[in-house]
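yo

u said u wanted the structure for the complex thing, so here. seqs first:
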Amino acid sequence: MSAAGAGVEGAEELVTLTIDDIEVSVPAGTLIIRAAETIGTIVPRFCDHPLLDPVGACRQCVVEVEGQPKPVMSCTVPVAPGMVVRTHLTSEVARRGQRGTIEFLLVNHPLDCPMCDKGGECPLQDQALEHGANTSRFIDQKRRYDKPVAVSPQILLDRERCVLCARCTRFSEQISGDPFIELFERGALEQVAIYEDEPYESYFSGNVIQICPVGALTSTSYRFKARPFDVVTTPSVCDQCSAGCTLTVQSRRGEIQRQLARTNMAVNEEWSCDKGRFGFTHLTAPARLTRPALRRDGVLVDAGWGEALGVAARAITEAMAAGPGRVAVVTGSRLADEDALLVSRYVRTVLASDDVDFRTTLATDDEVGDLTALAARPSASYDDVGAAPVIVVAGLDPEEEVPILHLRLRKAWRKHTARIVVVGPHAGTLAPIAWRHVPTAPGAEAAVLSALAAGEGEVGRALAEAERPAVLVGERAGAGSIAAGAALAEAVAGTFGWVPRRAGARGALEAGLVAGALPGGRRIDDAADRAELEAVWGPLPAAPGRDLAAILGAAAAGDIDVLHLIGVDLARDAGSAELARAALERVGTVIVQDLARTDTIVGHADVVLPATATQERAGTRTDWEGRAQRFSRAVDGPELVLDDREIVGRLAALLGHRLDTDLESLRAERERLGRRATPHPFTGTTSVAGAQGASGEGLVGVVRPLLLGTGTMLAGADDLLATARTPVVLVNPADAAARGLSDGDEAVLTGATGAALVLPVVIAPDLVPGAVVLPGGSTVPSVTVLADGQGRIAVTLAPAQDAVSGAAPVAVGVRA
Amino acid sequence: MGATGEVHVLSARYDVPDVHTIDVYEQHGGYEGLRRALTMAPSELIDLVKASGLRGRGGAGFPTGLKWSFVAQGTGKPVYLVCNADEGEPGTFKDRPLMERDPHALVEGMIVGGLAIGSEQGYIYLRGEFAFAGRRLAAAIREAYAKGYLGADVMGSGKRYDLTLHRAAGAYICGEETALLDSLEGRRGQPRLRPPFPASHGLYGCPTSVNNVESIATVPYLLRHGAEWFTQWGTEKSPGVKLTCISGEVARPGNYEFALGTPIRDMIEAAGGMLEGREVRFFCPGGSSTPMLTAEHLDLPYTFEDIQGAGSLLGTGALMVYSERTCVVDVTLRFTEFYEHESCGKCTPCREGGFWLSQILRRIETGNGRREDLDLLLELCGNIFGRSFCALGDGMTSPIVSSLTHFREDYEAHVRLGRCPLGVTPPRRDLPTLEPVRAEAALAAIAGGGA
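structre next:
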C-alpha cells in the first residue's frame, strides 16, 4: 500500500468514489484521507503523516463509510470503487467521533498553550478549536511527569503534552533508521523514551520536532524564544552541504530563531538534517567577521572597506606588474552561483589568469577534464536514485557528507529493496542497508567501476539486468572514478551523479571556477569554447592555469605574491596542511574573504574582507543534481559586511575593471552562457596508478569527513555539536592486531611529516587491510596535518601508551 | 439440539495419574489422532474440522476450520501455527488445567494443525505467569521429540514439525492475535493494522493461523471420533463441548466441562449452586469483557447464539456469578481498572478513555460521584466502542454499559448516599479534582497578551 497518493507510480487505474457527495477519482490504493485532500477536505489527524506508514493510533480521522457498521479511520483504509464516504462535513457520526477523540486527547494534556512553543502552529490546538468542545468535562487528576526530559542534547521531551501519535518513533524507525527513540510502558502511562543504555544519536533528530503534532518535542535552541505568529518567515536553501535542501528561515527582530525543513518532494521531501536545521548560530557567533581588517606589525586590526580594498588592490597590481602567474585565487565551495560566476570572470578577465580552484583536495591532473565533461551533462537526480533498483556508491558516505541523499537511499532500500553497492575501502554508514560492499584499495575505485561496466561478477550482472540503475561518485573517489562511473552508468543505461560534499561545489564547477575550465562545461584550451566566452567576457587567457596543488606548490616556492582566498580555510581544509602552511607563510599578501575568523585568517591573512552568509542575502545555489534553487534574504548581516560578489566587484573596480554585480544581470549572464552544446568527453584514465599504495609499515589514510565537526559554520551550535560522533580511527582487525591495538584503545597516528594525532581505535572488519579511515573536519588539528606535500597520508599506528618522545602526540578532540 | 449437561470429554484425562507423561498419554488414546491425520490430505483435515462445526474457543467463536482454510498456501514463505495460550481475561482459567494436566493433548493438536495448514513450525505463546504449565509443556515437547512425534520426520512420515514454547511477559493485550505476533517477534506487543490479516501476513510476515489452546486440543478428538461425534452435543450453530470456569459466589468454583446448550442455571447447579442464602443477581457469561446478564437470563442455553441474542457474548467460557451482596459498581470499577492497566496505549480512546472511566467509577464507588457522571460514563463508552484500534477498547465498555443498563439504580444510590450502599468500599473525601478548564478563558488570556 502506498502511504501517499503521490507515491503511487505509473499510469495506474483510477478508483471512483464519493466523498461528501462529491465524486472523486484517485489512483487505486490511495487512502481515504488523501482522497479527501484532493477535493480540499482536510480530515483532522494527528498520527497520519504522508511519508510515514499508516498506524491508525490517534483515531482522530474518523469518517463514516456507507455499509460499514463501525466508523472508519480514513488514514488506514484505502479507497474502493463506489465507496460512499462522509466526513465531518456531512456526517454526525464522524463529527461525534472526532469530538470524542479530541476530548480524550485533552484529558491528559496540560493545556499550557500560552507558554507552549507549539502554540499558534499546533494541530491539537487548531483541531480542538475547530472540532472540540469549549469546556472540558474532565474534573479528575491528570497524569503528571517530570519535564522536560532530554532525549538528546538538542531535543527536549514534554511527556505531558504528548498525544502518543508515534510520528517521532516511526520517523526514527522508518525514515532515519536510528531507532533509539521508542514508546515505553502502556495504557495512559505509555510514553516516548530512549533506551537507558543507548543515547538517541541521529543526524536527523530535528525532524521529530517538526512533525510532532503537539509541543511535546522541542529544541533547546528554539524553546521559549519566539511564537510562530511572531516571526518573519523566509524561504531559503541550505548551504551546509550539496544536498540542496529547501529550508524555511524564521527570524524575529532581525535574528534567526529557527530553521525548518521546507517541503520539496523532489529534493528533501519534508526532512532536513540537524546540521542544516540547527546550523545557523555561526551568523552571530563571536568568531563572525563583522568588519574588514588588515595585518599591521603582525596583528590584525580593524580597517575600513576603502583602506582594506586599497591594500588588496595595490598588492594585486604590484604582483601583476611583476609578471604573469603571481596572483592566484582559491574559492572553496561556499559561493552562491551568481557570485561564483562573477569570481570566474574576475579571475579570467581582471587578473587575466587561470590560476583558480574551488576544490580543497590535491586532485590528480585528470580530474579537471572529467569535471568539465560532467558539468555540461545532466546529472542523476534524487528521484532517479529513489527509483533505481541498483545504486552504486563510490567514494562517498552520504550520511556524513550529504545526509538527505542518505535518506533517499534508505527510502529506496526500504520501499523497494533497492540494492545498494558500496565501492571503496570501507562500507561506511551505508553498511546496514548495503546489498554488497566491493572493497578496493584506497583510491582504486575506478578500476572496480570499470570492471562492473564489463558486467563482471554478481554486482556487474545485477547492474546489467537492472532498469535504470544509478551510479554516484563522491569527491573522495580515486583518480579516474568520475570517468569510470560515467562510463559504467552509460554501459548499463543508468544515471550518473557526481556528489561533492560542499554546497557550492556544483555551482562553482558550472561557473568554471577551476583551472582549465570555463562556465557551462567548457574548456579554456578549446578555441571554440573560449570564443563563446570571449564574446561575453572579452579576451581570456588561452592556456590552462594551475590547480590547487600547483598553486600551493608555486606559492611555497615563492612564485606567487598574492593569494586571494574566497570562503576557504586552507590552513584547515587543504589536502595537505603542511603544503598549505608553507604556501601561506611564503606568500606576500594573503587576501581572505570569509564569514568567520578561520585558522587561515588568524595565522596568515593580511587583508580580511567580511562576507555575508546565505541567510543574509539573496542568490541561487546549485545542488549536486545540478538543480538551481533561489533563496531570499532572511535577515540583515552585520552592518559592515558585503556579499562576496560585491567585494569582488569593488576590488575589480579598483583594479580598473567594471564588473556588473547585480544579481539579475549575473543570472541573465548565466542563462546566456548556458552549457556547452556537446559535452566534452571524459578523459580520466582508469589506471590503478591513482591508487595509493602503502609503503613499509605505513597505512594509507582515507579521510572521511564527519557531518558535525569543527568547521566555522557550526560555531555556537553547542547543543548540536554535543550530538556529534566521536572522531575515531577505523582500523582493519589484522592491522590492529599486528600493532597490538584493540577496540577502544587510544592510538598515536604519525604521518610522513612527523606530525602526530591521538585517536581512539575502532576495529572495522569491513575496512580493507592496509588502510585506516580518518575523521575529516572534526579534530583539532585537522587530520590533514598527517598528509605529505602531495596530500597523501601514510601513517604509522602505535598504542598511545607506547608512544616514544620525539613527535609529541597532539591532543585531539571535537571543538574545544 | 444435541445432548446437554456436564460432560468429561476434553477433561476426561485430567484425573488420570501421570497422563502428562507421554507413555500414559499414549495408553489413553494419545497420538492416535495424529496417526490418523498423517494418512489424510491437508484439505481433508480442514474439511473434518469444518464438518465438526468447531468454533474458536478463545472468545470470538470464529469457525476453526474456516480460519485454517484462509491460511495462504503456495506463497513460497513458511507457514506458522501459533497457539494462543496467553489466557489472561479476568475470570478465565480453562486452558491452564488442560496444559498442566494433559499437555500432550495440546502438543498433538499442534502437530495435527500444522499438517492441516501446511506448517512445519509451531509456537505456543504461553502466559508467562503459568510457570507450572510451562514446565509441563516443555517436558511434553521434549518427550514428543524423543518419541519422534516432533522433529524432522514426524512418526516416520517424512514430514517435519517443530514446536517451540514461548513464555510471554505478562500483557493482556498480547492475547490479541496480532499483538501476540508482534510480541512473539520480539517487539512491543501492540495490535497491528489489518488488513493484511495474519492468514496472509502473520508471524514474520508469513501466512499464520493463531488458535486458542482448547480449539487446538479438540482437534485430535475429532480425528479419533469423527465430526459427527462432536455434534452429538450442543446446537447446530454451537456444536460440541466447552471447557468452562465458574467463579464468584458459587459453592464450588472451579473448572467444569459442559455440552454447549446447557442452561446457565444448570451450570451454576453443577458448581454446587449459590453459596448458602444467596441468589444470583448478575453474572458475566464469558469473562469480564462480556456484558453482564441478570437473574432473568439464567435459563438461557449456553451457546454463542443464545447469549448473543441476550446482548452478551459467550467469550472464553468464564462464568462469573454474583449475588446481591456484591456491589455491581465495585465489580465494574475493578474490571475497568484492569482494562485501564492493560490498555496497550496505542489508540486514544482506549488509552485515555480507560484512564478517565476508572477515575469516574472510583469517585462513584467512594462516594464522590455526581448525577451527571452516569450519563458521562455512557457517553464516554460510546466514544470508545467501535472507535478503538482493537477489541480491548470495546471490551472495556461492556461491564460499564451493561451494569448501567441493568442496575442504574445502584449507581444512583451511590451518588445519592455519597457512599457505597453495601459498604464494600469505604467512602473517601480526599480525592483530588481539578476545576474544569474553560477554553475561552485560555484564549482570552492569549488575546489579552498573556502576562
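Residues 348-365 of chain B form the longest helix (18 residues). DSSP finds 18 helices and ten strands in chain B.
cya
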